[in-house]
Amino acid sequence: MKITKAEFVTSAVAPDHYPIHELPEVALAGRSNVGKSSFINKICQRKALARTSSKPGKTQTLNFFNINDEIMFVDVPGYGYAKVSKTEREKWGVMMEQYLTSQSALRGVVLLVDIRHEPSSDDVTMYNFLKHYEIPVIVVATKLDKIKKAQRQKHEAAVKRKLQFESTDRFVAFSAETAEGKDEAWKAIYDLLTREED
Length: 198
Hints:
Blueprint: E1 6-12, E2 25-30, H1 36-43, E3 62-67, E4 71-75, H2 86-102, E5 106-114, H3 121-132, E6 137-142, H4 152-163, E7 170-173, H5 182-197
Parallel strand pairs: 2-4, 2-5, 5-6, 6-7
Antiparallel strand pairs: 1-3, 3-4
């Protein structure tokens, strides 16, 4: 996948703020410290397209990115960050649910989880939410470089078991450090788009 254009378009908190365009959208969801921004930057071959932060919970809006005039990535607020107030978390939840269940351009969701740990209850809730609404999902397990190669299968199995992962969904092990899994992630994303067109 050759990236010739990758640019931030706008931030939004409600449907009347969503950008008007004709591109298919793919949302990126995950815990606030799972490495969503690093994933976006690595697969788009940009160092600072999505802002990474040492403080989790910085993404508080839906952030739209135009990739190659082919796809719109939508980075949604990270969930599960304890230092964000309950009211704020609920507000984000409403915003995300509204987007995920009503946006006709949405083709699927990349759900990022940390391969080093069992998915959290929030991860399981998000996966079940997507399955309930029949929203196609790609599970990307980040931080692959942090575990030994001999341990990969065990960690992958633990993630799938906790999520009750369905074999019809796609699973990609990924490292933002080494770019391992980048091509597989792009293939899974493009398969989402072409499946929708069939």
